[in-house]
Design a protein that fits this description.
heterodimer, A: mainly alpha, 7 helices, B: alpha+beta, 4 helices
């Protein structure tokens, strides 16, 4: 037999159920973040090493094309996990759209910088790509962190922004590009990998 | 003058179901069962009542080899819920 609720109990029930649905982080949710994080670290370090090993150092940037299969796998796995999920909240949808928007912004940013480099006849402008990407990742990570009220994501965003500034400072003093990729890798460790492990352990 | 509380929503299980669905775009039957602590049979009865009232949409399909039931709140359900909360607040203020 169901309990007869009074007005206060009804409101309490509503609040507790809404809170339950919002607290929708489950064990293993950080797996995709970790996959992206480790892939980015490997690719950026590979880029840094190849800059010193290749006879034509600019060819080192081609390693970033490895991100295409990584991105494809991420969207494929996310789709699979979404189908299997027991609940999909409005915040989950916002987070997915923010990351999709980030991917499109990255592609546009890349094309814009290359376009400017060709128009100005100055390939040096391409040095802007890494700090700009860190800035955009930080933006997406911050929005998602605030939406989920998950502080490690917000702290991760701050690390990405700090990395973005460090890239410019490093290049100003050192005048060589490989350090940017090491800063990028370190930012990804702090901004994706650490929060990813925290998220996996959360429940 | 106080409004009557909607009898469809003024039930512990049905109110819990609608409250859970309010924050979700859609939720699985298993999830609702786990969070409300209801038995499958009892939950099915409440879901049927909410569906008949047009407060929720029920989608049944086969995922691989597993039959699944996914629930979603409708705009009618959201309006009814808002009215219900307003009525509750009126009662509390009196």
């Amino acid at each position: 037999m169901e309990k007869e609720l009074n007005e206060k109990e009804s409101l309490q029930l509503i609040n507790s159920m809404i809170a339950e649905a919002r607290n929708n982080v489950s064990k293993g949710d950080g797996k995709i973040l970790l996959f992206v994080g480790y892939s980015l670290v490997v690719i950026s370090l590979l880029n840094a090493v190849l800059l010193h090993l290749l006879a034509s150092p600019y060819m080192a940037s081609w390693v970033w094309f490895l991100m295409f299969p990584v991105t494809f796998l991420v969207f494929w796995c996310s789709g699979k996990l979404d189908k299997k999920a027991l609940i999909r909240t409005h915040i989950d949808t916002i987070a997915t759209k923010v990351w999709k928007c980030f991917v499109w912004s990255m592609i546009l940013l890349f094309l814009l910088v290359i376009g400017f480099a060709i128009a100005l006849g100055n390939s040096g402008i391409e040095m802007m790509i890494t700090p700009m990407i860190l800035l955009l990742v930080g933006f997406a990570q911050y929005v998602v962190g605030i939406a989920y009220k998950f502080k490690p994501f917000v702290r991760g965003a701050l690390i990405f922004w700090l990395g973005s500034i460090l890239c410019v400072v490093y290049f100003y003093f050192m005048r060589e590009p490989s350090g940017q990729y090491i800063i990028f890798a370190l930012s990804v460790i702090g901004g994706f990998i650490v929060p990813g492990h925290i998220l996996n352990r959360k429940v | 003058m106080f409004k009557d509380l909607d009898p469809i929503l003024h039930s512990q299980q049905r109110l819990a179901i609608v409250s859970l669905l309010l924050s979700a775009e859609e939720a699985d039957f298993v999830y609702i069962k786990e969070k409300t602590g209801a038995t499958a049979g009892n939950l099915s009865t409440h879901i049927e009542k909410l569906n008949e009232a047009g407060y929720i949409e029920v989608r049944k399909f086969i995922d691989g080899k597993r039959p699944r039931t996914v629930l979603k709140i409708t705009p009618t359900g959201i309006d009814a819920f808002e009215e219900y909360v307003k009525a509750l607040q009126d009662y509390i203020r009196k």
